[in-house]
Amino acid sequence: MTRSRPVHATPARTQQRSGGFSLIEIMIALTLGLLLSIGIISLFDGTSRTNKLQNGLAQLQENGRFAVMKIEQDMRMLGAQYCSNTTGGSAPGTAVPVLPERAPMIYAPNLNLPDSTIQSIDAAGNPSNASATAAYALSPRWFAQGYACTASTCTPALPVGVFPNMGLAAGMRVPASDVLTIRYLRGSGWPLESGACSIGAAAPILNGTAITVSPQTGDDPLDINPGELALVTDCINPVVLPISAVSSNTLTVGGGVLDGVTGAVCSGNRTRDVRLFNFSRDFVTVSYYLVFRADDNPDARPNGGGGTRLIPVLVRRENGVEQELVRGVDQLAFRYGIQDSAGSTRFMTADQVGAGGAFCTAPPPGMNVEPGCLWRSVRTVEAHLLVNTVNEVFGLDTASRTYRFDGTSYTRADGDALPSGLLAGSQLRREFIAYVSSRAHNL
What we know:
Blueprint: H1 12-17, H2 23-75, E1 105-106, E2 120-121, E3 127-128, E4 136-137, E5 144-149, E6 154-155, E7 179-185, E8 190-191, E9 210-212, E10 229-233, E11 239-247, E12 250-253, E13 275-278, H3 279-282, E14 283-294, E15 310-318, E16 321-327, E17 329-339, E18 345-348, H4 350-354, E19 378-388, E20 402-405, E21 408-411, E22 429-437
Parallel strand pairs: 1-11
Antiparallel strand pairs: 1-4, 2-3, 5-6, 5-7, 7-14, 8-13, 9-12, 10-11, 10-13, 11-12, 14-15, 15-16, 17-18, 17-19, 19-22, 20-21
């Protein structure tokens, strides 16, 4: 007889446990998952903030170094002329040997210098917007001109209609930042061989006189147009002549050449390398200043007027054409090292240089001490740039918000106003300094 094994019923409790997790287990799992998520989010947030900080610092360093490099390239050339910008002889009666600078003689009615309202220099050495009626020497005083600016004005006043007006809006010049304009000669020029003039050495150069240039291998391509000015120099006696026509390598003097210049300047010289330059373009005018640009990011926090975010930009202006160098330059200040009449070096701001006539060195031969004469004694330029990260880096501590500029320390909170009028925001700022000695004055 077969006996059947009794079947025991499975308790309901056992059936329930085999079907899932208890509430306590679920709560523990959720808590652990939440803690893990918080850790991952915190790690990601910290990594992201560190990455933004590093990117900001990298951009700040790159912008600052590039701006300093460009400024140094121009400042080394300040006042440079062909061969040497000095006359080659010390001035008598000075406390120390001083080499006066050469002043080109201008035989053209109008200079037409870019970024300037100057058309000529009058007998007292003052700039004029009228055409010249007699030849004059262009003092090296006009090869450099700085402007010390506050939040409302500049000293001396900027030429009208040349630079943007100051203001807290896109396209306007940044308040409380200096402006500097310098001029120098560049390019290879073109040689003038013996007999380059169509007249004799003793004959006066008049309208219609022809000058033939002889470009050599390695020289710049001949590029001069009617209506432009030509600088002819033998390293000792530079002169500027108006050109009315160009045919191949022959230039015709015209346009009202002023009296007093003879064919000796363009007849060639066996002992000197006589060259002709395009004075209108090779004698370049370079200006540095800051302007505002509108941030193209629609989500950026406003920091200026009108609910917009403005970015201060360093501009290099050459012969009237603006070039944007770098973004994120909050402030620009220039200091000038001048050589005074005793041979000492003094560092001054632009307004101090303009008022420092008592320290002027001897003028070029045949000239008197003209207004603003200390500008031709500038030997060194010190440029201070306050550069930021362009974009905001949130979560900065007090140490990160602290910086030095022009010898003073600052700590800016988000809502603090900068000298320009912008709100500081959450940005790193560092000072970059370009200290440049003029190559043209290192003898």
